Amino acid sequence: MKDFDHLMSVWQEQPVHDKLSVDNVLKQVKKDVNSLAGKLRWSIVAMVAVLINSFAVMFFLVFNSWVTYAGISIMMVCMLMYFTLIIRHYRILNRHDATVNPTEYLITLHEYQKQRAKIAGWFYYIYVLLISLGLLLYFYEVLATFPLYGKIMIYGTTGAWLLFCTFYLKRRIFMNEQEKLNVMIDRLERLKSQFE
């Protein structure tokens, strides 16, 4: 009898998993995905504006040195690569509707998470390195008439900003996005396991 009482107490101490409401989970996932897609849309708009501005600088301003044109070209190629990645990620997020087929959407979120992790890794550092090289070449002619303290101030400010974005801001942005993705994926996986 003692064994039975012990077994009953162990059984009752087991955590009770709450059943998730399908509608609430899907609404929350859809809201979170729309938030991520909205940020990507604004990134697309900003990147288009910067590319148009760079194009205008390259073709409507006259520079004496080919080095300046090379710097602008490097930055534009770099921005175009990032632009194509943003478009790809936006399309991955909007490829399927979470309310139609949550299991398929879960696969889409895993694919998106893997792609974003790849960007947070090696691509971002290559991107910053090439943008820095492009700025360095661009500033070669643009800052030629500046006094030494002006050059040091502009190079120092630009370098500090790039370092701040690379080692502080990037980590915070990507960690925040990964947390949101992990919560969405967890909700959908719990919902999936609920019906298995």
Termini separation comes to 35 Å
- Strand residue percentage: under 5%
How many domain modules?
1
- Mean pLDDT across all residues, rounded? 82
Could you describe the largest sheet, including whether it forms a barrel?
A: none
The number of E-state strands comes to 0
- What is the subunit organization of this protein? single chain
Order of helices and strands: HHHHH
Helix content: over 70%
User: Which structural category do the helix and sheet elements fall into?
Assistant: mainly alpha
The value of Rg in angstroms is: 25 Å
Overall spatial form: elongated
Q: Which spans have pLDDT < 50 for at least 5 consecutive residues?
A: none
Number of H/I helices: 5
Keywords: Membrane, Transmembrane, Transmembrane helix
Transmembrane segments: 40-63, 69-87, 122-140, 152-169
Strand-helix topology:
Blueprint: H1 2-13, H2 22-60, H3 66-93, H4 102-142, H5 148-194
Structure notes:
The protein is mostly helical and 196 residues long. It has one domain. Helix 2 packs antiparallel against helix 3, helix 3 packs antiparallel against helix 4 and helix 4 runs antiparallel to helix 5. The longest helix has 47 residues. The chain starts with a helix and ends with a helix.
